[in-house]
Amino acid sequence: MPGNPSWADGWLDANVVIRHLTGDPPDMAADAGRLMREAEEGRITLHLHPITVAETVWVLSRGYGFDRQAVAGAVRSFLRARGIRCEASDMVISA
Known about the structure:
Layout: E1 9-11, H1 14-22, H2 26-40, E2 45-48, H3 50-63, H4 68-79, E3 84-86, H5 89-94
Parallel strand pairs: 1-2, 2-3
Helix pairs in contact: 1-2, 1-3, 3-4
C-alpha cells in the first residue's frame, strides 16, 4: 500500500535520537550511530513522529542541560539527515 512503511522502514524512539545526539552512553550511542549510517546510506528509512521530537527536545534541555540554540541546531540537523522522515517536518523545524 502506498504510504505505508516497508520492511526497510522503522519508527524511531526518542531514546535512539538522544543517544545519537549526545553520545551517551557510548555503547548505545554506537548502536544508534550504526542505525543512522544505514539510513544515510539509503538502506533504510527512519520515521519520526512530532511527539518523539518534542520528547527529544525536553530530554536534551532538561536532562542534558542543552541551551535552546544547541537543541534547535541538533534537532534541525537530525531532521534534515538523509533517510529521516518526520511527519509535519516543516512545522516541527519551524517550531
